[in-house]
Amino acid sequence: MTSSFSDPSWFLAQLKPNCAQIAKKNLNRQGFKTFLPMEEQTRQRNGKFVTAKRPLFPGYIFVAFDAAKGLWRAVNSTYGITRLVSFGKEPVAVPTDLVSQLIQRCDTSGNLLPPKLLEPGDQVVLTKAPFADFVAEVEKVAPDQRVWVLIEILGGQTRVSVPADQLRTG
After folding, report:
1. What is the value of pTM for the model shown?
2. Residue 53 scores a pLDDT above 90
């Protein structure tokens, strides 16, 4: 990775609890470019399945800025941010390729897109109820974007049809 010191780099900032949207808004207001990848997760709450968007990396947000200008101090003092992730006294940039690949896997709002190409034998995780967080194996992909997966339940394999957007690669 070759870049000049004046190019903005991506850094990882640790968030205060439940402050992801507040920190993102405050960083954007200050002129920082942010990236907060989100995914839909289904959880059981009070006996019901509830689907909500949650950060892909809970507790962290990516922030782009020029480290040579010393802007990291402004990020550290932003409401909703605990601190930039650092090793030593100065924050360490996240590899640009890693962030670029993450951005490519998300839509313009930062929502994680479903996997594009699934092949029989791939391991996937179901993201919606009632099998949320179950690991399954892709058996077959139908032309209408329905995916037949094998889930192990009670010691046996069960075949289930699931829309592709309710799967993520595991």
Report:
1. 0.69
2. no
